[in-house]
Amino acid sequence: MSEPKSHNSITNMDEFANTASYSLLETLNADPDATDSGEDYWPRQVFSGHYVPVKPTPIENAVYISHSSTLFEELGMDPALAQDKLFDAMFSGDLSGVPAPMKPYGWATGYALSIYGTEYNEQCPFKTGNGYGDGRALSVFEGVLNGKRWEMQLKGGGTTPYCRGADGRAVLRSSVREFLAQEFMHALGIPSTRSLCLYASQSETVDRPWYREGSHSENPDIMVSNSVAITTRVASSFLRVGQIELFARRARSQAHSMAMQELEQIVEYAIEREYKQQIDSSLPLPEKVLALATEFRERLTTLVTHWMRVGFCQGNFNSDNCAVGGFTLDFGPFGFCERFEPYFQPWTGGGVTSRFLISLWPQRKTLSPFVLH
Question: So what's the pLDDT on residue 220?
Answer without folding.
Answer: 87
